[in-house]
Design goal:
The complex is a heterodimer. By secondary structure, chain A is α+β, with helices and mostly antiparallel strands. Chain A is built from ten helices and four strands. Chain A has helices at 3-19, 21-58, 71-83, 95-107, 135-144, 155-197, 199-208, 212-252, 254-259, 265-295; strands at 60-65, 87-93, 124-129, 148-153. In chain A, helix 2 runs antiparallel to helix 6 (155-197), helix 6 (155-197) packs antiparallel against helix 8 and helix 6 (155-197) packs parallel to helix 10 (265-295). By secondary structure, chain B is of the alpha/beta class. Chain B has a domain at 105-170. Helix content of chain B is 31%, strand content 25%. Chain B is built from seven helices and ten strands. Chain B has helices at 56-64, 89-93, 111-121, 126-139, 155-167, 185-200, 212-218, and strands at 15-24, 33-41, 45-50, 71-76, 79-80, 96-100, 173-177, 204-208, 221-226, 229-234. Classes of the chains: A alpha+beta, B alpha/beta. The structure holds adenosine-5'-diphosphate (ADP) and magnesium ion (MG). Residues 56-57 of chain B line the site of magnesium ion.
Amino acid sequence: MRISTFFYTLKQGLRNIFRNKLFSLASIATIAACLFLFGIFYAVLANFQHIVKNAEEGVSVWVFFEEGIEDIRIQQIGDMIAKRPEVAKMEFISAQEAWEGFRDEYLGEYGDGFTENPLENSANYQVYLNDVSMQSALVTYLESIDGVRMVNRSELVATTLTGINALIAYVSVGIIAILLAVSIFLISNTVAIGISVRKEEINIMKYIGATDFFVRSPFVVEGIMIGLIGAAMPLGFIYTIYNVVLAYVTDRFPQLSSLLSFVAVGEVFHVLVPISLGLGVGIGFLGSIVTVRRHLRV
Amino acid sequence: MAVKKRRKGPVVENEIINLTNVSKAYSTGAPALKDVNLHISRGEFVFIVGDSGSGKSTLIKLLLRELTISSGYINVMGYDLSKIKHRKIPKFRRNLGIVFQDFRLLKDRNVYENVAFAQRIIQKSNKEIKKNVPSILAIVGLAGKYKAKPRQLSGGEQQRVALARALVNQPTILLADEPTGNLDPKNSWEIMKLLEQINENGTTVIVVTHNREIVNAMQKRVVTLRRGVIISDEEKGGYIDED
Ligand SMILES: Nc1ncnc2c1ncn2[C@@H]1O[C@H](COP(=O)(O)OP(=O)(O)O)[C@@H](O)[C@H]1O
Ligand SMILES: [Mg+2]
């Protein structure tokens, strides 16, 4: 394609958008809404996953042994657990350590009155998992090992985290899918109107010997530009909101922000910008190409 | 030029248009053209005349390959138009210039842009456009009005713009469907004189018209249609009245 043809096509595409302001605006607004929601969901999800990831690192399972177990058996059990793929890290806590930890945390100086270890049977392995969702499989396995008396786990945390994670993902995918469909529909209508407005011009073009590609490309350009504008607007918006919210939370709830670590805005946008722009272009291209193929059967 | 696989009709020297036993029926009504035989040589000037509804525009549309024939054989500039592939049609049309009764200019663009439009479509460079458009506007006598919008021009001027647009790509054949239908006698004559001048420069010109006076005065080949049938085809012919 010639450079001049490229610019001509670009100019005609822009012209279409301006001639057809109302529909162009409606399309841009819908795409913007769609990608705005997408961006918000993505930002929330990214942070949520970040937080879950941090939390997961603290999720552990405690393995207690039967009374009177020999040290050698404890060692064997330890080797068996260490071989499991779900296990990120494990630690042996002797009865003495368990008691000291308990005493220091909950009893303070009152604990000094004890001369014997009241938690004689509390030696255990503290096992850290790679992923919360692997917990139940591991627990089943651990319970089946000979010499294991009891396995404790943080059930609630595990299931809640995975549950919320999935819920957010489903809801956002659902809403975004609906908005995507609406966007494509609106773009396709915008382009269809543009085509009907320019019917006469298109006819003249065909008489003069314009190729299908030449006749169609301004409309595809129109769709892609609408998609791009629709994608760029929410990105700017989300960038601002994100920074404001982060600053607010850090400022107002310092304890919370030390507990929950947020993802830096740059990191979120590193992913969000290409995906949003890609979606915008994709929506615009799809919406216009479908219509152009249907209405401009040259 | 495509190799002619089959030859239809009589051998005509320098033939550029060959219609042999062509019929065209629309989905409704009687056939618009019936068993038409028409052979035109390169460089000819031909008037197509006949009453309203006699099939003149249908004939032009067949030559443009806007419509396809129902039966027979049609070859224009070596293209077998009932076999031409869809994607070859633009290339075929680039050798044609077309003018209509209603001008069909782009109302939102000025004279210069309307003519340049034809060059942009066939992807000429800006450099060529800047050279070709003013020279063609000078030929049709509109050099001074290149900035005007169509609505600021008279009918005659608008038709000149349309003519300039049809000519700027240097067509082999110029097809004009009632180009003077909306013009007064003076402007009609001026447009016809331009068409004659274009023909003298080598372009084959086919003009559909109702203008009896001009047809009779110009002494060109005249093909007369009546109800879809060619009833007369004369060198240096005249306008035949309906009986
Ligand atoms: N698109 C169409 N569909 C059906 N019939 C048509 C169509 N166009 C033209 N006709 C008919 O074909 C005949 C020839 O029309 P046309 O070629 O336009 O005549 P002319 O240009 O000589 O006035 C007429 O009877 C007309 O009604
Ligand atoms: Mg007609």
